[in-house]
C-alpha cells in the first residue's frame, strides 16, 4: 500500500505524537509499504529514511502563546498543502490517509483533500481537551466551542476513529453526531523485546550513567510543562530529598519549565536533571530506575507510562485520560490526585520506604509480564493497523 501519515509533529521534535508516528512509519516501511509522512516545521524540508519512507515538512508558523502556552503547538501551514497532496498523489496514487491528532490544521486539510478525492481517512486520537495546561482535565469553554464546530466537521470526514484508549473513542463519539464511524482501540507502544532483554542490566546502566548502585532511584521523564505536574513534583522531591536517605531523583526531558526546575533542585546532591536521551537509549534510564512518577493534570495515553511498565517500575500517577486503561492489571501502581501535593508527598515517601525494605517484592514473572505488555508491543500494533488499512485502502 501507499500510505500517507499526516501529523503536526515528527522528529527531531519531541513528544508523544512525534514518537508514535516515527515508530509507525519505520515499521510500515520495513514491511515494504510505501509511506509518506506529511508534517510541519519552521522551514520546508524533505528527506528519505529509506527507499519506502519519504518525509515532507511544510513551513508553518505558531500563533502567539496567549492566553495558553499550548496554542503554540497548533501550527498554521504557510504553504498550499492541497497542491502538495495533489503532487504526491500524482506520482503514485495514495491508498489511505492516516491523520494523527484532531487539533491541527494540517490534518484538517489532509482530511478535506482526501474526501474531495473519494479516499478513506483514519484518525488516531492522541488527546482530548488540551487547551488549558493549568486546569485539571484541561476543559475550557473555548475548546468546547471548537469541539462543537471544527472537531465535529473534522469527524464528519473520518471513516475510522482509532483511540489510544477507550476514553478517547468515547470522547470523539460525543461530537460525531449521528454519523456512524468505525471505531477501535489501538494503544501506543514500545519495542517490547528491547526492554525484555535488558531488564537484568539495572546495575550496568547505573554504572554507565554514574548513578548510585544501591539507592532507590525515582524517575520523571517527559515534557517540563505545567500539565505534567512536574513543577509541583520538583518541590515535593526537594523536600523528600532532605528527609529520606539512600534515594536518588532523576528528571529527564525538556520544556519551558526546565530552568525553573533546575533552580528548585539546585544544590541537592541526590538530584539530577538530564536532557532527552537518544532514541536508541531511552530504555537505559527507565531500567536503571525503581519508581516512576507522573502527576499529570490531564493526559491521553502517555508513552512514558508504557515505558515504565515495560521496565517493571512502580508507577505513581494520576487517574486521568487513558492511564487507568493502560495500567489495568499492572500490580505496581498507585493513583494520586494531581491537585493534592500532600497526597503525592506521602505516597512517594511510602513507596520509597517499601523499596528500601525489599526490592525483590516488586518483580513480575515472565509469563505475567508478557501477558500484560504484549498488546503494547509495536509488532502487534503495526499488524493491527495494517489490517485496518487493508479494510479502508482506496480502490479505483
What does this structure look like?
There is one protein chain. With 396 residues, this protein is α/β, with parallel strands linked by helices. The chain folds into 2 domains: 2-189 and 377-392, Rossmann fold, CATH 3.40.50.2000; 192-374, Rossmann fold. Helix content is 39%, strand content 20%. The protein has 15 helices and 15 strands. The strands form 2 sheets. Strands 1, 2, 3, 4, 5, 6, 7, 8 and 9 form a 9-stranded mixed sheet that branches. A 6-stranded parallel sheet has the order 12-11-10-13-14-15, with helices on both faces. Helix 1 (16-30) crosses helix 15. It is globular, with a radius of gyration of 21 Å. The mean pLDDT is 93.
The secondary-structure class comes to alpha/beta
Domain module count: 2
The end-to-end distance, rounded to whole angstroms, is 13 Å
Reported CATH architecture of the largest domain: 3-Layer(aba) Sandwich
Reconstruct the topology from this structure.
Layout: E1 2-6, H1 16-30, E2 34-41, E3 45-50, E4 53-61, E5 76-77, H2 81-91, E6 96-100, H3 105-116, E7 121-125, H4 141-156, E8 160-163, H5 166-174, E9 182-185, H6 192-196, H7 202-208, E10 216-223, H8 230-243, E11 247-254, H9 258-265, E12 271-274, H10 282-288, E13 291-294, H11 303-310, E14 314-318, H12 323-326, E15 333-336, H13 341-357, H14 366-373, H15 378-392
Parallel strand pairs: 1-2, 1-6, 2-4, 6-7, 7-8, 8-9, 10-11, 10-13, 11-12, 13-14, 14-15
Antiparallel strand pairs: 3-4, 4-5
